[in-house]
């Protein structure tokens, strides 16, 4: 009980002789050091706020302006044109301040005002410069003079050594597209998916909307765009995520994987020690804003707003809508192991625990033989089921007493950690099937051993494999992916392990025991937990996953045929779906709008008339040159759609916001209702690899992560996540539902592989072989017709 005694700073006992006061010097020292660390963080935060506030200038530039003004005054000239004298007249009268001193104070005040005016002007100029997006539509190597001048001006006004949030005040607001442009692009996107009669009916609905209700809704939307930082993001977060009343497990949450071919150590506690320490190192860099802002083409900044809620954040259930709550710098994590919850402190005496110390503490949890309290083991199922039962149960059973304290501990933790008893990864006699099970485990686990409401949960498996599960409402996948890349690289290449597989360093045996959370779960609450689990378990069991790393070629080979790697993969997915289902479908590809302040995502409708024309020609055995021309047209169209989406000229977010306004006004729009109710049977997303410099694919080719994935959006469709890893690997995560007889993730994965090979062969076939290839292709088509 030594730790418990140290936790008490002082004790007093009343005796006949008086009051006996006993001080614990060690506890007081811990309190002092913890408070000192807290104040240091506040000072760093204040300093960063000042630096960010004056960017692209620097705080030291204020001194330069003051000195310049004073030096000019001493040359008997007035750079303020009489303003310094005016300021001096309004200074409070003071007999202790000489005339010369008043002049200096007035000059300093004028210099400060001049400095702030210059900063405001520079921010405004940079904001106007960043509103220019023509550069995105110009081909590499064919850049216009205007864009070259623009790049030079952006570099001049951008300053030096920006912090993570330095550009936030200079980013432009997301523009509201014109109604006619959005309607036109929408009709173009659905043309290949509708019959002539269906398209004519939809065209009439669109025209009616554009001529009548659309302009009224647009007026309200423009008014919001003038007032808000981003006219989409707050409504997107609320209505797409927080107002959803179904389970967020599978339907909203997503996952990230460990290295595919390598497990740095087979010791679960050691892997947890390095992983948690690496994540804390990332949080320290995040708090100090030492993470570099994401710059496109090395000079065009993207919004960093989403990083603010990466840690210390939890989704809180509500009856009508959930809320996302963010706290400040929690010093512990909540840990789940064998049905029990623990609080694990990661700081002591104001310092971060070393990886070896965290390993020691994790091992203590693993060795703890205590059983779960009644109702504790499956408590996490509340976060996996429907939201309304969880909101009601939280209010009824967790609003006071020991249950509230324990729930607060989980929700206010830096993040959540699961010590899983299963072994996962590419292993055993059937490594491919085991990788699929690994993905399913990260996505939903046992439906009660993850806390799906936390911003992210780190999962450490028994054999040392790890991964994470992330909640989607507070940010998009690239934010979590950036942190996870850093954690994996730091774990393996910076921290490392000793020869026995343990974390490096020494252990402090006086560390306090991890604190077991206590619960008082009544029978009625346990019954509700079982009901939530009964909802979540069938949903998890229905998910069909297939994960594979395509290593035959990568983006390096695709670039050689002068095609966009993303466009090439999207066309392969279109071809694979057509072969799988014999039809085209509305296809969702997520793109980012982080060129704008608080931007999140926009939809690229990858299935276009151009892509459909190519696939029909290719499958019907058309001439090779015709197919090549059509595939290039389709790729260029896809790139154009992607660029439009990134620059605020997308379709779906604009229609979504118009629909929200119509609901606020109580007006029904047949066009908006039908346009937004069409199913996305193929939902795709590329997870970008953002920190290639942290990895060495040449000397350590097996240290690659397979990215992450998500569940299917439509019951009869596929969810496909892919990552371009280096120059030679493309990873795919394919999801669907067993309950749908028309979908099969493994079959679709096979079709993706074949489509990738067929497209590359089409683009690389020699002219001399074209005739033979055309003959073979035609014979295959003839055989199909005969069958």
TrEMBL record:
- Provide the residue span(s) of the region labelled Disordered: 767-787
Q: Can you give the residue ranges of the Carnitine O-palmitoyltransferase N-terminal domain?
A: 1-47
Listed transmembrane segments:
50-74
Bilayer topology annotation:
Multi-pass membrane protein
- Start and end residues of each Choline/carnitine acyltransferase domain: 174-753
**Mind telling me what this protein is named?**
carnitine O-palmitoyltransferase
Q: Which family does it belong to?
A: Belongs to the carnitine/choline acetyltransferase family.
Q: Which gene encodes it?
A: LOC103035972
A single GO cellular-component term from the record reads:
mitochondrial outer membrane
Q: Please give the catalytic activity noted in the UniProt record.
A: (R)-carnitine + hexadecanoyl-CoA = O-hexadecanoyl-(R)-carnitine + CoA
């Amino acid at each position: 009980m030594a730790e418990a005694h140290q936790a008490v700073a002082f004790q007093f006992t009343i005796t006949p002789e008086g009051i006996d006061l006993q001080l614990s010097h060690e506890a007081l020292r811990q309190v002092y050091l913890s408070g000192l660390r807290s104040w240091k963080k506040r000072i760093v935060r204040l300093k960063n706020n000042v630096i960010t506030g004056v960017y692209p200038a620097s705080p030291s530039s204020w001194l330069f302006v003051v000195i310049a003004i004073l030096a000019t005054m001493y040359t008997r000239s007035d750079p303020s044109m009489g303003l310094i004298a005016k300021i001096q007249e309004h200074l409070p009268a003071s007999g202790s301040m000489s005339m010369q001193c008043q002049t200096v104070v007035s000059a300093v005040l004028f210099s400060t005002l001049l400095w702030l005016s210059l900063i405001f002007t520079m921010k405004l100029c940079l904001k106007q410069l960043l509103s220019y997006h023509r550069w995105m539509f110009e081909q590499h190597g064919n850049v216009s003079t205007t864009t070259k001048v623009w790049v030079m001006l952006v570099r001049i006004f951008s300053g030096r050594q920006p912090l993570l949030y330095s550009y936030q005040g200079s980013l432009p607001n997301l523009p509201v597209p014109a109604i006619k442009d959005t309607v036109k692009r929408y009709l173009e996107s659905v043309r290949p998916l509708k019959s002539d009669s269906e398209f004519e009916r939809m065209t009439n609905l669109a025209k009616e909307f554009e001529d009548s209700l659309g302009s009224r809704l647009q007026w309200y939307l423009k008014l919001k765009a003038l007032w808000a930082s981003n006219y989409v993001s707050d409504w997107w977060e609320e209505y797409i995520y927080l107002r959803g009343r179904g389970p967020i497990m599978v339907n909203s949450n997503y996952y990230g994987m460990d290295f595919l071919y390598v497990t740095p150590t087979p010791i679960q506690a050691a892997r947890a020690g390095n992983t948690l320490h690496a994540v804390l190192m990332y949080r320290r860099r995040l708090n100090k804003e030492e993470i570099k802002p994401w710059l496109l083409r090395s000079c065009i900044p993207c919004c960093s707003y989403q990083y603010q809620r990466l840690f210390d954040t939890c989704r809180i259930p509500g009856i009508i809508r959930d809320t996302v709550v963010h706290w400040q710098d929690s010093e512990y994590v909540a840990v789940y192991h064998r049905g029990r919850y623990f609080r694990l402190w990661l700081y002591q005496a104001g310092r971060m625990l070393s990886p070896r110390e965290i390993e020691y503490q994790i091992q203590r949890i693993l060795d703890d033989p205590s059983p779960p309290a009644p109702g504790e083991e499956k408590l996490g199922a509340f976060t996996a089921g429907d939201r309304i039962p969880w909101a009601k149960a939280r209010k009824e059973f967790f609003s006071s007493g020991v249950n509230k304290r324990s729930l607060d501990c989980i929700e206010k933790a830096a993040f959540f950690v699961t010590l899983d008893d299963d072994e996962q990864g590419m292993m055993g006699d059937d490594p491919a099937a085991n990788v699929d099970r690994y993905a399913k485990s990260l996505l939903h686990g046992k439906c009660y051993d993850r806390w799906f409401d936390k911003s992210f949960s780190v999962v450490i498996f028994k054999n040392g494999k790890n991964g994470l599960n992330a909640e989607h409402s507070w940010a998009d996948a690239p934010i979590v992916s950036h942190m996870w890349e850093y954690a994996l690289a730091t774990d393996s290449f910076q921290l490392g392990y000793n020869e026995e597989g343990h974390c490096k360093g020494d252990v402090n045996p006086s560390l306090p025991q991890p604190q077991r959370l206590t619960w008082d779960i009544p029978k009625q609450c346990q019954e509700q937990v079982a009901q939530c689990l009964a909802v979540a378990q069938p949903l998890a069991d229905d998910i069909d996953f297939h994960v594979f790393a395509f290593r035959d070629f990568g983006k390096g080979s695709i670039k050689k045929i002068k095609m966009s790697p993303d466009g090439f993969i999207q066309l392969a997915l279109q071809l694979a779906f057509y072969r799988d289902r014999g039809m085209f479908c509305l296809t969702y590809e997520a793109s980012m709008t982080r060129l704008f302040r608080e931007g999140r995502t926009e939809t690229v409708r990858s299935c276009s008339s151009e892509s459909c024309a190519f696939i029909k020609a290719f499958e019907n055995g058309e001439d090779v040159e015709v197919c090549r021309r059509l595939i290039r047209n389709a790729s260029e169209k896809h790139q154009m759609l992607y660029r439009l989406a990134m620059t605020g000229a997308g379709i779906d977010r604009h229609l979504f916001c118009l629909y929200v306004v119509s609901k606020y006004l109580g007006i029904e729009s047949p066009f908006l209702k039908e346009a937004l109710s069409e199913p996305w049977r193929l939902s795709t997303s590329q997870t970008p690899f953002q920190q290639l410099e942290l990895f060495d694919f040449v000397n350590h080719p097996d240290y690659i992560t397979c990215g992450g994935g998500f569940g299917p959006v439509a019951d009869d469709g596929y969810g496909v996540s892919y990552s371009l890893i280096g120059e030679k690997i493309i990873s795919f995560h394919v999801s669907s539902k067993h309950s749908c007889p028309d979908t099969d993730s493994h079959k679709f994965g096979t079709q993706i592989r074949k489509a990738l090979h067929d497209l590359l062969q089409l683009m690389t076939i020699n002219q001399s072989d074209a005739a033979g290839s055309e003959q073979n292709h035609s014979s295959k088509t003839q055989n199909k017709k005969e069958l």
